[in-house]
Amino acid sequence: MKQYLDLLKHVYENGVDKTDRTGTGTRSVFGYQMRFNLKDGFPLVTTKKLHLRSIIHELIWFLQGDTNIKYLKENGVSIWDEWADENGNLGPVYGSQWRSWPTPDGRHIDQITQVIEQLKKSPDSRRIIVSAWNVAEIGNMALPPCHAFFQFYVAPAQPEKGILKPQLSCQLYQRSADIFLGVPFNIASYALLTMMVAQVCDMEVGDFVHTLGDAHIYSNHFEQTELQLSREPKPLPTMKINPDVKNIFDFKFEDFELQNYAFHPHIKAPVAV
Ligand SMILES: Nc1nc(=O)c2c([nH]1)NC[C@@H]1CN(c3ccc(C(=O)N[C@@H](CCC(=O)O)C(=O)O)cc3)CN21
Ligand SMILES: O=c1ccn([C@H]2C[C@H](O)[C@@H](COP(=O)(O)O)O2)c(=O)[nH]1
C-alpha cells in the first residue's frame, strides 16, 4: 500500500493547515489521485490493522439500498452511529441514491442495476456512472456523500497478451477524504465493489482509480500519522469471492474470504463528527 502511504506523507508534509466544519482542524491538499491494479492483490492498508468486517457489511448495506443503521448494528458495525437519528435513519444517503434515485415524475432509478446492464450490453459506453450526489436531496441527508460519483471502464480482452476476458476498472471521485480513518475504508470498499461487479459481468479486474478533492488529515490524527509513516508496508493480502454468486445483490458476508493479511497493530484514532 505504498500509494496510500505516499498520500499520507504528501499531505502531512505539504498540506496547508485549515479549519473545518467539525471544529477539529485539518492539514489538507486539494486534488490527488491514486491507482491500484487489483491484480496486484487486495488493497487493504497493512501499516495498521483494518477492520474488514465493517467494510464488507457497509458495502452489502449500500447495495441493499438500506439507509437505516439497524442492519449495521445487528452485525456489530458502529461506524455510522454518530450520524443516525433516534430511529437509526440517515436520510437518503448512498444506498437510497444507488438503488432508488427519485425522478421528478415519481419513478425511481436503480443505478446499480442499470450499470450492470450497461456493462453487459455496451461495455464501450463512456456513460457507465453511479452518482450519489443528488443535489435536490442533499439537505435531507445526515451527511452529504463523500464518495460521490463513480464510473466503470472496460478494456477489451487481449488474447495475445494472455488476457482472455475484458478487464473492468472503476474510478471514484471523493470530494472530501479523511485520510487516516475514512480513506483506507473507501479504498477497500471500492476495490471490493469492482471485484464483485467484474464477477457478475464475467470480466477480469483492472484498476481502481481513486481521485480525491479535499484530502485532509485531522489535527488529532497527527501522532497516529507519524507512527504509521514509521512502519514498513507488508505484502498485500488476497481476497477470495464465492465464484457461484452471479447477481450483485446476492452477495452475503460469508461469500468473502481474505487470505494472507499481514499487518502492523491497530492504531486508534477519534472520528470527527
Ligand atoms: N470524520 C469522518 N471520517 C470518516 O471517515 C467518515 C465520517 N466522518 N462520517 C461518515 C463515515 C463513517 N466512516 C467511518 C467512521 C468511523 C471509522 C472508524 O472509527 N474506524 C476505526 C474503527 C473501525 C471499526 O469500528 O470497525 C478504525 O480504526 O478504522 C471509519 C469510518 C467513514 N465516514
Ligand atoms: O466515506 C467517507 C465518508 C466520510 N469521510 C470523511 C471526510 C470528511 O472528513 C468527513 C465529512 O465531512 P464534510 O464536512 O462533509 O466534508 O467525513 C470519508 O473520508 N470517507
TrEMBL record:
EC number: 2.1.1.45
Catalytic residues identified in the record: 146
GO MF term (any one): thymidylate synthase activity
Pathway: Pyrimidine metabolism; dTTP biosynthesis
Sequence positions that bind dUMP: 21, 126-127, 175-178, 186, 216-218
Any GO BP annotation: dTMP biosynthetic process
Assembly information from the UniProt record: Homodimer.
The protein's name in its UniProt record: Thymidylate synthase
Natural source organism: Sphingobacterium gobiense
Protein's gene: thyA
